[in-house]
Amino acid sequence: MTATAGRVRASLAWLERRGSKRVRDDMLSRYGITAPKAYGVPVGTIQQLGKQLGKDHELAAALWATGWYEARMLCAFVDQPERVTPGQMDRWARDFDNWGICDTICFHLFDRTPLAWKKVGPWSRRREEFVRRAAFALLAGLALHDKKADDEPFMAALPLIERAAEDERNFVKKGVSWALRVMGRRNRTLNAACLETARRLVGLDQPAARWIGREAVKELTGPVVRRKLRA
Fold it and tell me: Which of 41, 113, 149, 207 is the most exposed place for a label (fewest CB within 10 A)?
């Protein structure tokens, strides 16, 4: 047995010992997460294991291959962003089968890679529900974490948001909404641009677009965001 295989077995055993039926049941009933292979371990507990294991690209690849929900969540905290490849990002995105995996990988790993911006556009045009959601989860992560990015790439993403806002699927709709609202909190320029987009969406016939637009207008004109922008 290789060292990596041994670490995978030990990690799965650690997760299994901390799993519970209550958490498994809550994943579906409370959070809408469908995961056929799950132990039922809270995210905070998974993060504890990630800290113990440290960064290891080969271990992350082997954990992903197990198909276990918690093992794949663990990859977000174990993989090395600088070693993630374009092919890996596409393969893992195709494997996304619930919003928990999609958002955690995009928000804690993929948005920290040098490749992140190159995936937003192509994924936003894919038909698979969680690949398309990944585009906007990634965009939201970049809006929060990429402090060095100027306004241009976010402005260029607004047409992607308008195009995907017509998608009525729940997890796509919520991903698009998340990205638009987070982008509009970065600064005054993006706030104005995102509000302009949101108001256009409110005037469309599609229910999903109207919902996204209303939610964004409400948040981006609200007192919390206004105080942040003034500061």
Answer: 207
DSSP code for 106: H
Largest Cα–Cα distance of the chain, in whole Å? Answer: 60
Q: Does the residue 117 lie in any domain?
A: yes
Alpha-helical runs (H) found in 125-222: 129-145, 152-164, 170-183, 188-202, 207-220
pLDDT digits over 73-86, tens only? 999 999 999 999 99
Helices (H), strands (E): how many in the chain?
14, 0
Cα dihedral across residues 132, 136, 141, 143: positive or negative: positive
Report d(CA 43, CA 48) in Å as an integer: 9
Evaluate whether residue 173 is within a structural domain.
yes
Give residue 95's Cα distance to chain centre: 14
Residue 17, amino acid: R
Q: Is a pLDDT exceeding 90 seen at residue 1?
A: no
Q: Can you give the residue range of the structural domain that contains 56?
A: 1-79
CATH of residue 199's domain is: 1.25.40
Q: What is the dihedral of CA 129, 132, 137, 142, to 10 degrees?
A: 170
Same domain flag for 229 and 183 = yes
Q: Are 137 and 75 in contact (CB under 8 A)?
A: no
| pTM exceeds 0.85, yes or no | yes
